[in-house]
Batch of 3 targets.
Target 1
Amino acid sequence: MSKLAKKVALVTGGSRGIGAAIAKRLAADGASVAITYAKDAASAAAVVKAIEAAGGKALAIQADAADTAAIKGAVEKTVATFGGLDVLVNNAGTAIPKRFEETTLEEMDRMIDINIRGVFIATQAALKHIKNGGRIIMIGSCVGERNLTPGLAAYSATKGAVKMFTQSLSREVGSRGITVNNVQPGPIDTDLNPASGDWATPQKAVTALNRYGHVDEVAALVSFVAGPESSYITGANLTVDGGTNA
């Protein structure tokens, strides 16, 4: 039997990149998966179609991570459609690489609203439904612990907040057997941070493996943390960064 059979997962920001890879992997491991997306309905539909073509169950829900009502509604729709909730993956996030003194207040607010406030909202809504022994998984960033790349000061601060939220929340929900962990990717090849992009050279240079990571490498760690073999891991910050923070 697949390790996530009969489990229900919600992946925020699951229409592309790391989120799409996570959704497909959790579905491949047996979970029914709901994903949220902000605007790109076509990409979200493609993820659902790929999961269903492989024999899985999936649902796409339009919900901007900064929209309180939409995120709460996405949790409720997931529960109503699949009959419960076992795994929440707070993947939705955004980065606006720019020197801090040039970053506008609107850009700061956008990163805070999605990367911190959105995580708070989704987690609080999910905790009303998530079953004992469930999983809450944050997608943070290795720069939330140590930042070597100029232009990410505000972004790294939001991911540092996610790190502390993970550690603190794990102590609040541990009595229910719910684990809370923070998966921290390093430079991963996506359309938002392509291995051929302008920001790639300094990021690649600080890895130990001298390469960008792949979305499936992040998804594999998330799948492990979502599964039964990780039941004694909680409050942990798990990097998948090619040795960036080594």
Note: The beta strands are 8-11, 32-37, 58-62, 87-90, 135-139, 179-185, 237-240.
Target 2
Amino acid sequence: MTINTISGLFGGTSPFTALQQHMQAVLSCAREMPPFIEAVIAQDQTLVEEIKERVFTTENDADLIKNGLRGHLPKSLFMPVDRRDLLAVLTTQDSIADVAQDIAGLFIERPMPVPEPMQPLLRTLTQRCVDVCEHYGKIVEELDELVEMGFRGREADQVEQMLSELNHIEDETDDQGIELTQILHRNEEGMNPVSVILWRQVIEWIGDLADNAEKSGDRLRLLIAR
């Protein structure tokens, strides 16, 4: 991403433009996770490394937008929202990309086979966590219209409904993460103890994709309420 492109994000009057652009970069990272897990399951280390490079590049793009937004937001400005609330949303949604980078990096540092009993639910959990991120991304795209309506009216009601649905979907991923961890422990005999520990970490990180999207939604709810 060039400096001119980044600067262009801040030419308008709404700080939400850059927030939306940032979320698009974050989503690009999250969307790599299902094919990444497929490559891990297939033990295709060449593809694992290719996807890892894409994740790292896009995460860097997200960081450039994040830092640009932080640097261009005035300390005091007649904005429709509090500057601190906006930055809190930005930081939390950025953590989605950070987690995707952590997952991708781990399998470069230590390639690990996926125990066969874990594979179906690992696929399901990963995709469902990305679904939560996608849902949050749709909410972020509604912000321009929400600002125009003064955070009130039908648009605000629709966003609140979407936020409630976000919480519901994230609850599903919590249950799937617990079930996948149980499958791991039922099959840990004969596994390398370090691999068992790392798989627990991977399952937690995959769940964090959805958890951070939910936290971003909660911060967005507070921003809108104020």
Note: The longest helix spans residues 153-186.
Target 3
Amino acid sequence: MPDDKIMPAVRPEFEATPRDAGVIGDAARPLSLWERLSNHTGLRRVAILVALCLAWQLYAQWLNSPLMFPTFKDAMTAWIDATTRGPLIDRTLTSIRVLLIGYGCGIALAAVFTTLAVSTRVGTDLLSTLTAMFNPLPAIALLPLALLWFGLGIPSLVFVIIHSVLWAVALNTHTGFMAVSETLRMAGQNYGLRGIPYVVRILIPAAFPSILAGLKIGWAFAWRTLIAAELVFGVSSRSGGLGWFIFENRNQLETAYVFAGLFTVIIIGLLVESVIFRGIETRTVRRWGMQR
């Protein structure tokens, strides 16, 4: 070994004294009441709603203009009165019935277009072209054509709802199918899956997060389109939906009842989101480990 080669320094040895585990703290401790409450998702959301209602009440009292902005108490009183003695329940059921018809037809047409798109190249080009053409087109812009083609009534409402639902659901579903990995596709083919069993057992579960997102977007679009359409021509045979209820009370300057109609729309939206869609999400994509 050459004399000029420098040897690495020897690291000195040392002894470490173990720390007493008692000074570290509890490895696990029971949560306090505040921590348990703050970790509950439902309670946090209820707290947010209570804070918003309180802010509404305080601002309306400070504004002191019931015609422009009634208090939360007045709006709730009007909602209870319209629900128990007024036509609010009948108007709500009418809107839900029309909404379900249009939403179901839109989903069925989206399934047809998506099936064609994933099956053939021509179907892919057709869906891409139609989506680029009609997805940016507001459904409310089709109201004049709906009046000419279907007249004043439920068919016109269903037509504009289908337009608002179809493209959002079809686009998200097709995007989810295209994002399925080749590994899953080949695994399904190796098991001998073809046709409908291949779509049902491989493509739909793998693309279900995108499909569920499309269903949520389509539902929101359908609600907005329905209320806007009913504000314009939602009355037929002396009956109408929530939009027409809001429109009538606006003409009569019953602002509290207008807020009661809007409050009903919000309640239905919260119930559908927190009960139906969240239940589907919990039992599918979260159980499958596809979402946190």
Note: The first strand starts at residue 235 and ends at 236.
